[in-house]
Structures are given as C-alpha cells and as structure tokens.
Amino acid sequence: MLRRSWALAVLGIFVCAFAPAWGQSTPAYNKDAVIALSKKIDAHLAKVWQKAKVAPAAKADDYVFFRRLNLDLLGRIPDLTPVTDFIDDDRSEKRWIWVDRLLDNADYSKEHSRHFANVWRAIMLGYQTNTQFQFQVPQFEVWLRDRVAGNVPLDKTVFQLLTSNQGGNPNFGFQPGMQGQGSPAVFFQANENKAENLAAATSRVFLGVKIECAQCHAHPFAKWKQDQFWEFAAFYSTPQNMIRRPIVQPAQPQANFTPGREILIPGTDKVVKAKFLTGKEPTWEGGDTSRTVLAKWVTSPDNPYFARAMADHLWSHLMGVSLLEPIMEPSDDIPITVPELLNDLAKALIDNNFDAKFLIRAIVHTDAYQRSSGGAKLAEKEDYHLFVRMPIRALTPEQIYDSLVFATTSPSSDLRKTLLMPGNLNQFFDPRQQQSARQQFLLKFTNQDRRHEPQTSILQALFMMNGKFMAERTKVATNEDLQDLSNPGLDGGHPGRLRSLYRMVLSRPPRPDEMQRLVPYLERGGATGNLSDAVSDVFWALLNSSEFLHNH
User: Fold this and answer.
1) Are strands 252-253 and 243-244 parallel, antiparallel or unpaired?
2) Which pairing describes strands 271-273 and 243-244: parallel, antiparallel, or unpaired?
3) Cβ-based burial of 455 (10 A; exposed 0-12, middle 13-18, buried ≥19)
4) In terms of CB atoms within 10 Å, which of 21, 114, 137, 377 comes out highest?
C-alpha cells in the first residue's frame, strides 16, 4: 500500500480535483422535430443566461463528449476501439450518428436497456437498504428492461405499474420458475402496500409533487393540506384503513365503506373521499378499480403534472440537475427553475406519444448538454440551475461497477459478458445462492440524492483503494492488458504505455503535463524499480481518481 500511496501522490491532481480541459440500424424518429426541440431548449437557456448576465462554457471536446454519452446512454465508460473510431470519424454529423448508434444499434441495445432499467428503478424505488427486499429488486429491473428494450411509451409503462397489484397479491407477481418477465408489482412492496406510502411515492415519482409533508398535519404555509394528502391516498385504501381505534372501545370498522374510494384519516374520526390532486372527484363508472381510475388520470396527456415529471426525470439524468428541484433554497413547495423549458419538454413528450428516446435525443443534441464542465466559476456557490456548464456528476453505483469492469477486463472476459446476461430470476429468491460480484459491490455504495454535490464515505474510499475487488483487477498477473503494457519491448515505449492506460481508464490521452510527470515514474520503475509494478501503480491510481469516478 505504501508503494501505491506514492503513485497516488504522483497523480494527486486527479484525486482532489481535475481540469476537464480534455453499420447501424436506421432510427425511426423525426430528425427535424428533434432539431427543433434542441434549438428551443437552447433558446430558453440563452434567455436565462442573458437575464443572469453570465456566459456559457465552451463546447466539450470529443473525448469528453463521447465518455459522457456512453455513461449516460449505456451506463459505463466506452471501450478502447469505439473511442478511437469516434475520434477518427471525420464526418460533420458524427455526434448525431453515434447517438443513433448507441440508442438503436443491436450491439448496444442490451446495454442501453439494462442501464435505463437501473435509472428508472432508482427513480421509482430509490436505493433500498433492506437486505430482504433487495432480493425482489431484480424482478423490477427485468420488467423495466423489457419495457425499455421495446421502447414502450412512458405513459403505458407507468399505467402497467400502477395497476399491477390490484388484488394485493403477496407474491407480487413472482411465480417459481419465472425467467425473464419480471414484475412491476415490486413497487407496492417497496412501499409496504400502505395507502399513505403509495400516495406519497406516486405523487413524488410520477407527478413531481411532494405531498407527504402534509400527511401528519396541515402546515399553515404549505401548498398541500392534510385533507388533500389523504384524499389522494384514498385511491389505495383497504378495509384496514377504515378501522377506528378509540382508547376505550374495541376497534371497529366504519360502516358502508368502499375500499379505494374513502379513507379514515389516522388519529381522527374524519373520513375523506378519493380525489385527484387537482381537487376533482373521479367519476366512478364501469368496472374499473380505484387504482385503474387513478392510473388513467395519472398517465393522461391532459394531466398537468405527469408529462412534466417524466420529462424532468430524463432531463435530470442527462443534465445532473432537476428542473423541479429547488437548488439553492430547499423547501416543501418545490419551484420550477425554468418553467417555460419544462413545459416545452412536457409538450414534446406528449406530442411524441411519451417516447423517452425522442426526448433523450433532443436533450443530448443541445449545446447545453455538449458544453464543457470547466470554465470560470460564477459565484461562491455554483448556480447549477443556470446550466451554463455541464455539472460534474458523481457516477451511480452501477456506473462505477460497470465502468470498472470495462476498464479492467478484456471483451472476452466472463465478468464483462455477465453484464449483458438477462439472468435467471430464481437465483435472487434462493437464500442459498451467494450474491454476484456486482451485487456485493453495489451494497458498498449508495446513490447520491444530488449527484452534483457528491459525498464519498470512508468505507467506499477504502473499498476502492484497498478492497480485494480492485486489488485483483490491478494485478499484472491477472490482467492481460497490463501484461502487454509491461512488456519492455512495447512499441511506443513509456509514452505509448501512458496513452493506453489513460484511454483504458479515462477515455482520453494524457495531457503534456501528465506525460512530463509520469514518464519518469515509469522509467525508474516506480517505487520498486520494477516496470510491471509501475504500470500497475499508475493503472490503480487512475481508477481511484476523481476523474474516473465522475461524469463531467
């Protein structure tokens, strides 16, 4: 460890800070419509900059853009060959071409589906710390992966989810022997099938409205009142929600109660009827259940909340900052930072039948998405909601693991191949099965609520620096690429070794100052006088750098 501490010191600039100065299928989408929306997004932000009297950052170079694109669309850093192919591509529209390739080409479709299943699962369920529940999560991811792979519209996906547990099935859709199809009903288990939990999650995730603060009492300055919370929760009510619990008399149910249409506010004798957040009561016609009625309203294109919430989730994933989030002054009444922009994103989503890929394309082709994360600091505390530059975002736990695998293994390795395997759901429900290497890794890391304000725990840092997982993958004896780079007769010598190491890990070539500092380190064999040790040290230090662990 002492030897590697020395290597880390040599590369210290990367650990504390870094200067970010550095045959396909035909897509079925309207390119002109994508261009028009991209320009509209940039026009909205230009007005924001003019009002704030700030100048946007410069455009990111090809290395930064391609790494960012792979992390955002596939969930991991690019492989060596695609990096070279992209850089060498001299076509004027190469960024368009490669976006289409990563979104539509069969070579990448499994990775895109797997990654966005992780993205939507994190949005809809959060990061669960309950070990018992974690065995259920793969069901949800498999179901989401199939929806993403089929480009199922977001409104239909959410409708299926909200109506998936109509009877309160304790198996939550899972049956022994099930392989591949997964289950959306895990959403209900994650919220303990409680009306209040489901109401809060449905409102927050699918409507972009935080109403749970009104659950216990009516706050005099809050927008949402206690009655409104429980009126919304009534759609998820069960007979248990109508049990009176007086101190003296035995508990007794409320007479003439219809589950899903009324609910007793806990701690009171007050019964409220189910209402949408707009205050409108549903029309109870036909044989639809209360959850079907709610799901139809939630996912309706006429709903003033749903399209904006879905658009904001995609914007937040790609841009690092939510348009619905109060950046500087958190409060219960969440303001919209650029309301005209969010409204246009929502309208575009509706006009294109809630096609997530359409909106993804429009955002990644904006000047805003393609800007550098560098540039002069605007103020003591960065105004991220101005979007003058790309925020430096902490990688998600899944992105860290998958990127480590791509950086430390060859394309033919079993570890890399398992990332694309659908897997057998039964293994997640057998307590005798040991967790996969990926699952064990993810348990060490928790996602950041605000990825532009990342925090790393001591345990996470120790895992990366001293853990067995990293130690095994940075040994020359177990890494074929490091063995090749440790060959004394390697073409290109030490500069060539550094260029290969940097592209493997950081997806870019080293800058002149890095070459000046590290070539002598390799020449003297690092701390031990051994070339193999020096190559391994530099590789390990780059993997532990802030630049590797962030999207910028």
Assistant:
1) antiparallel
2) unpaired
3) exposed
4) 114
Kindly list the domain boundaries of the chain, sorted by start residue. 2-16+395-551, 127-298
Give residue 441's pLDDT.
Answer: 73
CA 5, chain centre distance (Å): 32
Q: Contact, 430 vs 480, CB < 8 A?
A: no
Q: Which residue has the tokens 């619990």?
A: 245
d(C-alpha 349, C-alpha 352), whole Å: 5
Residue-by-residue DSSP string for 344-378: HHHHHHHHTTT-HHHHHHHHHTSTTTTB-S-S---
The residue ranges of DSSP E strands in 79-164, in sequence order, are none
Report the C-alpha gap between 14 and 439 in whole angstroms.
28
CB atoms within 10 A of CB 460: 17
Reported as a single tens digit per residue, the pLDDT across 77-130 is 999 999 999 999 999 999 999 999 999 998 899 899 999 999 999 999 986 656
Contacts of 159 (CB under 8 A, 6+ apart): 295, 296, 298, 299
Among 240, 241, 217, CA closest to 227? 217
List, in order, residues 6 or more apart from 233 with CB less than 8 Å away: 195, 196, 198, 199, 263
Please say whether the beta carbons of 393 and 66 come within 8 A. no
Instruction: Report residue 141: phi and psi, to 5°.
Output: -65, -40
CB-CB neighbours of 426 under 10 Å: 13
Give the phi and the psi of residue 244 in degrees, each rounded to 5. -80, 140
How is residue 354 written in tokens? 């809630």
Which has the closest alpha carbon to 436: 452, 451, 453, 415? 415
Look at the alpha carbons of 425, 427, 429, 435 in this order and tell me if their dihedral is positive or negative.
negative
Q: How confident is the model at residue 227 (pLDDT cuts 50, 70, 90)?
A: confident
The confidence band for 336, taking pLDDT boundaries of 50, 70 and 90, is confident
CA gap 103, 361 in Å, rounded: 9
Q: Kindly write down the DSSP assignment for every residue of 491-525, as one continuous string.
A: TTHHHHHHHHHHHHHHSSPPPHHHHHHHHHHHHTT
Q: How many CA atoms lie within 13 A of 168 on its CB side?
A: 12
> d(Cα 312, Cα 246) in Å, to the nearest integer?
44
Q: What letter represents residue 106's amino acid?
A: A
CA distance 457 to 460: 5
Condensed to tens digits (0 to 9), the pLDDT of residues 294-306 reads 999 999 999 989 9
4 HSE (CA, 13 A, CB side): 17
Asked whether 77 and 71 are in contact (CB, 8 A), the reply is yes
pTM: 0.88
- Among 181, 434, 205, residue whose Cα is nearest residue 310: 205
